[in-house]
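re: that complex we talked abt at group meeting.

here r the seqs, copy pasted straight from the sheet so there may be weird spacing, ignore it
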Amino acid sequence: MAKIVELITENVGKVRPDSLEDYLNASGYEALKKAFKMTPEEIIEEVKKSNLRGRGGAGYPTGSKWEQLHEIDETPKYIVCNADEGEPGTFKDKIIMDKDPFKLVEAMTIAGYTFGSNHGYIYIRGEYPLSKKTMQKAVDLAKEAGYLGDNILGTDYSFDIHIRTGAGAYVCGENSAQLNSLEGKVGRPRIKPPHLAEVGLFKKPTLVNNVESFAAIPYIVLNGGEKYASFGTKESGGTKLVCLSGNVVNRGVYEVPFGTTIREIIYDLGGGMPEGRKFKFAQIGGSSGPCFGEDKLDTPLCYKETGKNGLIVGSGALLVVDDSNCAVDFAKCISEFFVHESCGKCTMCREGNRQLLRILTRFTEGKGCKEDFALIEQLSNVLPISSFCGLGETATRAVSTCIELFRDEFEEHIEGKCRAGICSFSEGGK
Amino acid sequence: MAVNKNITAEDERFQLLDEFIDEIEDKKSSLINVLHKAQEIFGYLPLEVQKHIAEKVDLPLSEVYGVVSFYHHFNLEPKGKYQISVCLGTACYVRGASKVLERIKKELNIEVGETSEDTKYSLQATRCVGACGLAPVVIINDDVYGRMTEEKVPEILEKYK
Ligand SMILES: Cc1cc2nc3c(=O)[nH]c(=O)nc-3n(C[C@H](O)[C@H](O)[C@H](O)COP(=O)(O)O)c2cc1C
Ligand code: SF4
Ligand code: FES
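got the structure back, here u go
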């Protein structure tokens, strides 16, 4: 039976988001006070021991990232919180910002103190106006009470947080594109290296972490990295916020320890499919993640096991799709997303995604042909190796895994048949 | 949100925008914030407004235009009084968002990306607004409607006359 463990969501629903007092009563700012008594090296050591890995999707070890930035002497350094949460089906960072905003403020302040940085930025997607308001309010209240601003808690450390909003571009979730956007520019990715730890925001050393990664920091500082790691599996420390959506009874965000199986999440926590419907497939990690069938449901959620099974942990999005849906039309929906969001810098990502959408559209109209499978395969092979950033690299993953699973359904569409009855072949299918 | 096709340099609303810009220390890196504000004031970002901003923050117009046209949120054309966004993110899609969208198109007789002739309604498709637990989701100006069905469409549109 799956269990919920509340390490980073402990306050969700229990504190008022606009009350610093509530946060303090819930042991808020104890971690910062403790951090002030530690050296930066000690803090980084705890983060390393925690086995925390980036929750924004890429899963990079947070401790190593912090260590790399620490080793750089140049100043000033900047702390950036990636709250772009653009991956469709992901809505976990929003829960932290809307329900426990001081946790994020405290976490960023600890990071700021660790690196001797005086400025932090939170980049919130434009689609989250409420989160922006809530975060701004928390920042203002923290400042008024001396938890932010000059000489925090009477120390000689000063830190300020600035809130910025995106303007509807998925690619700005990519960390280097995000820094360009924060500088007021077009949000296209930068070439790396140089890494952002060396040449980041305003060309200065910069830390970029996801909201959920930051949110784990107060727990780690307060209870020790080992304690946090003890909740997960050997390689994947702690807990993960899973965003369960689609055709399940209980949709929502659940904090589960790593090692929980996908089946447990869908059936124990999510309550399975609505009555009378059957599981068809699921998709993990958002629109850039792979689709998979029943046979992989017993995969434990953790970086190692998902990797072995061709899955990812990604952002923690878990979308469940039942048999009322058509695999071909679903693939087309994903493809539309990538056409819309490609930033246009690379030819293959810009044009390849368009061609893929054209082919998939033909299928949904009953005009596909056998040769199209080879074309799709070609695109799926070329895009990952000819794209500049993760968007193009992963854009074909959902479509190609969908075809692997449901080749028969794609073939039926060539004959003008849609078993789910979603595609209408009125416009002159075969 | 105000819709005005003829914005001239004398428009009083520029003063409002200038007050906002004057408060900002680092104007260049705040371009996106300024554009958000300008769109809030004018409803969209016509060339006249872009020119004004370019001068005010000391950037070439080409760069301002580059930023405006890159981000989906910024509009070069005026939008309707009621902006209707239908989420077509995957979590909404698998719960029947396309049917909801079709119904709205039929009721209002406009396509995605269009504004109705009486400039009352604009229709757009968005990708995941982070309310996947309530899918499918429709947003009209600042109001969020979750668990949408085709059948609920007329009744909800009735509120925006
Ligand atoms: C196309 C694309 C979109 C991304 N979107 C997000 C996002 O919305 N939020 C996020 O935290 N990371 C996103 N990332 C990952 C970031 O580049 C980066 O790895 C992350 O912010 C680092 O923080 P973390 O190590 O704490 O996860 C995205 C990456 C790519 C390639
Ligand atoms: S891969 Fe796509 S999104 Fe990434 S830089 Fe190239 S064109 Fe832009
Ligand atoms: S997919 Fe529609 S709100 Fe997330």
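couple things i noticed - The pocket of flavin mononucleotide (ligand 1) is lined by residues A 54-58, 60, 82, 84-87, 171, 173-175, 208-210, 213, 389-391 (CB under 6 Å). The two ends of chain B are 14 Å apart (CA to CA).
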